[in-house]
Amino acid sequence: MLKNKKLLTVLALMLSFVFVLTGCGKGGNTAEGGKDSIIVAQGADAKSLDPHATNDQPSSRVMKQIYNTLVVMNEDMQIQPGLAESWEQKDEKTWVFNLRKGVKFHNGEELKASDVKFTLERMLASDKVNHIVEAIASVDAPEDYKVVITLKEPFAPILAHLSHTAASILNEKAVKEAGENYGQKPVGTGPFKFVAWQSGDKIELEAFNEYFEGAPKIKKITFRNVAEGSTRTIGLETGEIDIAYDIEPVDKERVKNNDKLTLVEEPSLSVAYIGFNTNKEPFNKKEVRQAINYAINRDDIITAVLNGAAQKAGAPIGPKVFGHNPNIKPYEYNKEKAKELLKQAGLENGFKTTIWTNDNPVRVQIAQIVQAQLKEIGIDVKIETLEWGSYLDRTGRGEHDMFILGWVTVTGDADYGLYALYHSSQKGGAGNRSFFANAKVDELLDKAKATSDSNEREKLYHEIQEIVVDEAPVANLYYQTQNVGMQKAIKGFRLHPAGHHRLYNISY
After folding, report:
1. 221 pLDDT exceeds 70?
2. What is the three-class DSSP state of 80?
3. Sign of torsion, CA 358 363 364 367?
4. Three-state SS for 248?
5. For a designed S-S bond to 255, which of 119, 283, 318, 485 qualifies (C-beta 3.0 to 4.6 A apart)?
6. pLDDT tens sequence across 234-248
7. CB within 8 A of 87, min separation 6: which ones?
8. DSSP single-letter state for residue 317
9. How far is the C-alpha of 72 from the C-alpha of 493, rounded, in Å?
10. Residue 325, CB-side half-sphere exposure with 13 Å CA sphere
């Protein structure tokens, strides 16, 4: 049934594709005959281009081109200089960063330490992203090109956290001038500057010729919102799209077998999961949450939806993340165990509920499979599909019963992968959309943050994951392989494990 639906969808999309991409245009040519403008397609529009207003992947992928951070986590997950050319740890809680001189913002202002101070203090005031730099006690700018960051307590992954796109450095003047509209008028120091945004359709960027690393070879980038994966693939085949993020599993062979295209595929730092609103009945009962975990056949999802391009998830963070607990196995598929747990919860006759997903075809298919699997243990699930921005807002407010989402441990450190999703202080839009609260988990997460010894941190994170998996505020589904399809003529592209890829180095 699913295959037939996919076929009909693809045929319909082929007929409508010309309307979807009308006005895309092909990239302009350079004097040497190569294109100097590209079209990048992803499955959802950005929510905001203010790094402190959102923490979603589609937005981060655009912001990566507009901004820079003090330090950079490169594609090999190594910390490299960014806007800070050097840094020094003075003691367990004090870090000094020396800024590059002569770095320009897109509005012509020169980067100063005061901008860094303004940025990090603004970030600390944001309920969306403050958890990333919560360890910071103060930021000082004693000189124009020197920044001193003092921590509340020792925090081992501070450099990794400062490499997060949410820690992108802003221009104080630009932010204050734009006010509440800053998310639609971003100003950074990155290789590309913002030009225009047609909400729901496209975001246009152009090369910043005064970029401190040198002007980009590509002169214009257009990010297109193309929700349907098959449509992105067709766009690659026709040449209307140059780079397409997240090729659907069913389309991967088409891209691989096309001699004009390239498919780049690598493991990611992401985990896909189904979350439960633990504030609502019956999801406030651990037995119900565990029952659903046992009722989900993860192998079916990986085979039918992902064509095998994933690994079943047991622990809440994947094998590439520091602190991953390899001893935690995925919940086994056991319908009888699930029914027994529902009986213990007083729900042997099942119940009715809803599962929310955004308009991502993969997640919709997952919802359909889970809907069928939960019906077998008496749970009647209605699927509701929401637009991405509304989905984030409403799950952040806790209006849902169940939801499907993914989390990318951008920093490669367990603190980022666990604190935002499971610390009680992060309930809602900050990450903890299951509204989970556990005093022991809070205590261990706080302790792990302040521990400098990596072996001790690893032990703490292993214990945290054991508690979380037993409490089951979510059903971890799989660790996904990420991919990008592109025109074969493109050079210099590298996948970043965090999923937001730097386009500065590419050329045609």
Report:
1. yes
2. strand
3. negative
4. coil
5. 485
6. 999 999 999 999 998
7. 70, 71, 95, 96, 97, 98, 159
8. S
9. 17
10. 21
The residue whose two tokens read 């622990």 is: 315
Helix or strand holding residue 419 (H, E): helix 414-422
Q: What angle do CA 262, 264, 269 make, to 5 degrees?
A: 165
CB neighbours of 143 closer than 8 A, spacing ≥ 6?
Answer: 113
Which distant-in-sequence residues (6+ apart) come within 8 Å of 214 by Cβ? none
* pLDDT band with cut points at 50, 70 and 90 for residue 450: confident
Which residues, in sequence order, are CB contacts of 424 under 8 Å at separation 6+?
432, 436, 437, 438, 442
Q: What is the pLDDT of residue 503?
A: 98
What pLDDT is attached to residue 480?
A: 85
Helices 2-20 and 361-375 pack at an angle, to 10 degrees, of 160
Q: What is the DSSP string of 189-227?
A: SSSEEEEEEETTTEEEEEE-TT-TT---S--EEEEEE--
Alpha carbon separation from 184 to 31, 56, 62, 127, 422 (Å, rounded): 33, 16, 12, 19, 31
Q: What is the pLDDT of residue 38?
A: 97
With b meaning 16 or more CB within 10 Å and e meaning fewer, what string describes 383-399?
bbebebbebbebbbebe
Going by pLDDT thresholds of 50, 70 and 90, the confidence category of residue 131 is confident
Measured CA to CA, the distance from residue 250 to residue 154 in angstroms comes to 47
Decide: 407 and 421 in contact? Cβ < 8 Å.
yes
Q: Is the dihedral of CA 165, 209, 490, 250 positive or negative?
A: positive
Contact 270, 407 (CB under 8 A): yes
Report helix, strand or coil for 433.
coil
Residues paired with 38 in a beta bridge: 221
Asked whether the CA dihedral 193, 171, 109, 411 is positive or negative, the reply is negative
What is the DSSP secondary-structure string of 130-154?
GGGSTTEEEEEEEETTEEEEEESS-
DSSP H helical segments within 197-329, as ranges? Answer: 229-238, 252-256, 286-295, 298-304
Q: Judging by DSSP bridges, how do beta strands 192-198 and 202-207 pair with one another?
A: antiparallel
Q: How many CB atoms lie within 10 A of CB 140?
A: 14
For the record, the structure tokens of 92 come out as 């367990």
- 0.85 exceeded by the pTM? no
DSSP-based three-state secondary structure for 79: strand
In sequence order, what are the residues at sequence separation of 6 or more whose Cβ sits closer than 8 angstroms to the Cβ of residue 378? 339, 342, 347, 348, 349, 350, 351
Token look-up 């521990």 returns 451
